[in-house]
Amino acid sequence: MSSPRLLRDNFSDLFGADMLPALEELFRSELMRHPSRRDQLFKTVKTEQSIWQSSELHDMPLMEQIEEGEDYSFEAPAQGANKTLKPVKYGLGFSISEEAVDDGKFDFIADAIAKLAKSAKESQEIQAMAILNGAFTSTTIANGDYLCATSHALPSGGTYRNQLSSDADLSNSSLETMLIDFETAFVGDSGIIYKMAPKYLVVHPSNKRLAMELIGSELRATTATAGTDGITNVNNKNSLKEDGLIVVSSPHLTDADAWFLMSDPSEAGLRIVSRKPIETKAAGADAGFINDSILYKCRYREKVGAIHGYGIFGTDGV
């Protein structure tokens, strides 16, 4: 982060709008110190409107054999459920007194700026992870189902699922089962199997090291058995490593036993609808004229949500 010395050396004799560029530099540099987990998992879409709407489009039927001279059949894709996400505003601010500047409290000002930036980033992370926290109980997709379920109804009468049929804690066997499900369970309305590749293994920090061992070890983790001599441990090659998963852990997951596999955000159904990104504002050239203080604030407008269950597979553990 930029040193408070920037304020002390260049702005010690200034108060008001002339100080704002330095405050903004401190704010932005602090934002960069906090990499976003949500940007790995959610697709961000921008909107200039007060609402953002997503409309499902069902699959086309599978192709059939056409005899010589026979006419093609023409099908119109059916529209499915809609989901509306309405961005809301979040904000917070604080004041900087002229006395704080006069008395050389630059470290205090810099720390307040950093904490405001940290508040903005943490707020966004918490709001995003709340979608996963409610995946089995409150977060709904366009058709009204919970984000993760053992049966999502399709208009054709069929179903697909994105939750383990039997919930399980993270282990070699449960991860292998979910990887197989990821390749086979995402079925579309016409029976098409969506070939989505899992990219992220999302866990609570208490499972982070186990997750890294499961997908990163050369040999299968936690599965060594005694050899024929009864002493030497033997193990098989870890095929889970070949999937190239990336472990993402978040302290904002409230259930330590819950874990998820996710595809690239471009395929999965998690969305951040951004109306205004994080921005700061303060008083202008007449800052401090009334009460000898600068009112400095941060705000953003967005909405996080889920529009479909494809590309995300989860379990709340046992």
In short:
This protein has helices at residues 5-11, 20-31, 38-41, 98-102, 106-133, 172-184, 208-216, and strands at residues 43-46, 52-57, 79-85, 88-97, 152-153, 159-160, 200-203, 225-226, 233-234, 246-249, 259-262, 270-281, 293-306, 312-315.
Descriptive overview:
There is one protein chain. The chain is α+β, with helices and mostly antiparallel strands and 318 residues long. It has one domain (5-59, 79-315). It contains 7 helices and 14 strands. Strands 1-12-13-4 form a 4-stranded mixed beta sheet. Strand 8 and strand 9 form a beta hairpin. It is globular. The model is unreliable at 1-15 (pLDDT under 50).
Keywords:
7 helices; globular; 318 residues; 14 strands; 25% helix; single chain; alpha+beta
